[in-house]
Amino acid sequence: MKTKVKTISILPAYILLSYLLSACNPLTANQLGQNPKWAESPQSSKESQFLNISGNKKSNSGDLQGAISDFDKAIALTPNFWKPYYNRGLAKYRMKNHQAAISDYSRAIALKPDLTDAYYNRGVAKYEMRDRLGAIADYDKVISIDPKFIEAYQNRGYSKQELKDYQGAIADYDRAISLNPRFALAYDTRGSSKAALNKNQEAILDYNQAINIQPAYHPSYYNRGLFKSKLSDSRGAIADYDRAISLNPNNSQYYGSRCFTKNILGDTKDSIVDCNQAIALNSRDHIAYQVRGINKQLLGDWYGAMADYDRAIAIDPSYAAAYGNRGSIKLKLGNRREAVVDLTKASELFRKQNLIKDYQRMIKLLSQIKA
Measured between alpha carbons, how far is residue 10 from residues 25, 154, 231, 248 in Å? Predict the structure, then answer.
């Protein structure tokens, strides 16, 4: 089984969510026959074995419902045959029925307690259910059975990283790298944990190493770009975003981050071009609407800017900055009453989000309006 992990982003506007490597390719009939680990259960009938293999073939061809039907029949014939539970779990996971997948993996584990792949994939499914601690517990079990299961260290590290246990995450990435010094993804995610700890030089070295090992791995360029942006190296960040986009021109987040950074540099018109592309690829990218609105506001297109802020708020009603920017335009247009409503809403949200400086800025502006 391959690792299923995510890279982490520095800027909260563009947390990378979609770079998941497959962890759930069903075992093929050939694999079942060649690997002694998958020897047939003595309790299984020939018919249930045939149905299990048939289900795998259907799953491999994309017929997941047909595969599940075969696994159901195999289980009905031989309830103590662990393979159809496991493979049905893989099929259900691919259908994004994560809870049902977890139930099937658990049943397979009950019948075969040393089944590392079932613990591993159950951990992946728990992660998708946002059960980070449950996922870590399953990866712990994998590692206790097979201390050289590299992907379990990688995934456990990422789960710890999301729980802000950056030191624990780094320890897991270190172990993965010690087992495979050419594991580019481990360097990439370790770089992100080090960045979170402000170990700036070490983080850059890890991103560089990930790129050296796998020059076509676009998330590493993206993450290095985010980190450079954090360090106020905007032009260096844009160079990395350019490279990430050249390798994967269909990722909205890459355009969104470049749009954001070009806005910081005052490259307003080019920023709008990137915002447009980000929105074309993901019409629910509220940050891209917000940044495009800022650009339009800077160019004097008040109503165009306000339309973008409207859209950002419709997508994310808790987006304080969009209320603040929209309120500022309404104030410039002489609509004091609606401006006060938006600015008040912005101040309330900033306070709830513990963004104290922004909250104080809104309060100061409101007091000036009312004076």
Answer: 31, 19, 10, 20
Mean pLDDT rounded to a whole number for the chain:
87
For 51, the token pair is 């149905």
d(CA 114, CA 290): 51
The confidence score (pLDDT) of residue 371 equals 67
Report d(CA 56, CA 129) in Å as an integer. 25
pLDDT on residue 164: 96
Are 32 and 56 in contact by the 8 Å Cβ rule? The answer is yes
pLDDT given at position 137: 98
CA 140, CA 157: separation in Å to the nearest integer? 11
* C-alpha torsion 266→269→274→279, nearest 10: 110
83 Cβ contact partners less than 8 Å away, ≥ 6 residues apart: 32, 38, 41, 44, 52, 74, 108
- Alpha-carbon span 151 to 191, nearest angstrom: 17
d(CA 222, CA 258): 10
Q: Which two tokens stand for residue 236?
A: 């260096």
As a whole number of angstroms, the distance between CA 351 and CA 321 comes to 12
CB 124, CB 93: distance < 8 Å: yes
Residues 6+ apart with CB under 8 A from 184: 209, 210, 211, 213, 214, 217, 220
Query: Is this structure's pTM higher than 0.70?
Result: yes
Residue numbers in the chain where pLDDT is lower than 70: 1-44, 371
Q: Which two tokens stand for residue 244?
A: 């990430």
